[in-house]
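Practice problem: predict the structure.
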Amino acid sequence: MNTAEQRFTPTLDLPRPVRLSVVKTPPPPIKAPQPLPVHETAPAPASWAPEGLNGPDPRLMNTQRGFVDFLLDRYFRLELDGWDKLPAEPALLIGVHSGGPLTMDAWTIGFAWYRHFGTQRTLHATAHDVLMKTPGLGRYFRRMGVISPTRDNIQAAFEKGDDVILWPGGEKDSFRSWGKRDTVELGGRTGFIKLAIRSGRPILPVATVGGHDTLFVLSEGRGLAKLLNLKKLLRSEVAPITLSWPLGLAVHVTPLQHIPLPAKIRTEFLEPIHLSKDPAMADDAAYVQQMYEEVERRIQAGMDRLAAKRRFPVFG
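Answer:
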């Protein structure tokens, strides 16, 4: 090939191979699930009853009906009078209860009320925080319609058109010694009077005797309670010495350490007390004390009448 041919001979320039590289993009970080706002959470199931305000649960009441009938009619031989004394409007029932943590006189009222009214008129019992927080027992109480005795809970029950029964004496009342079994104990607590005035509800006093024979309280143990600091630990001013089955002689500080004995229980609803319609009277200390003493007097008179019906000193 001559010089000219070399000069004009075209050359083919092929492109160089291109090396492809894959860029790996890291995946986006996974975010931890965040809780939904309160208003977006799923609704609670219909069977859930906050603080017992939706109770009692008819399914539970029907399931235990046979056992309840046995307790009321055979075991405790309940006599409950005064149904005609109930006012047409919802009321605040005030009474005493006996038998330590398992106050059968109180429970027989609740069972008898449901047996009498069914779902037509609801009564909410109240219970100490220790009982409401006891595993298993607290949930059972709520299904029974029991509420903690706070002003908000009681007012909420009234707004639903329900009745509420309250035992102002608390553990002072339920653990009073056997020698005081027929003496009313409201603990000097006048808050229920103020609550009734402010809510515009009548008070229905309730007298009962016999519950103290389900558990024999030999000593209230107030000195021992101070020594054990029970007021701070359990909100209790007593550490009672009791005689019960099956433990016999024991310090009674837990809810489920005895089986109630088969005492005869007599209960009566008394004439309602209609308080002042002026909410300002709730701040009148003299009026509040006067009404407290009137409730106390009526309950004591009712207990005296019921105690006179005993045929035997114990269980009768």
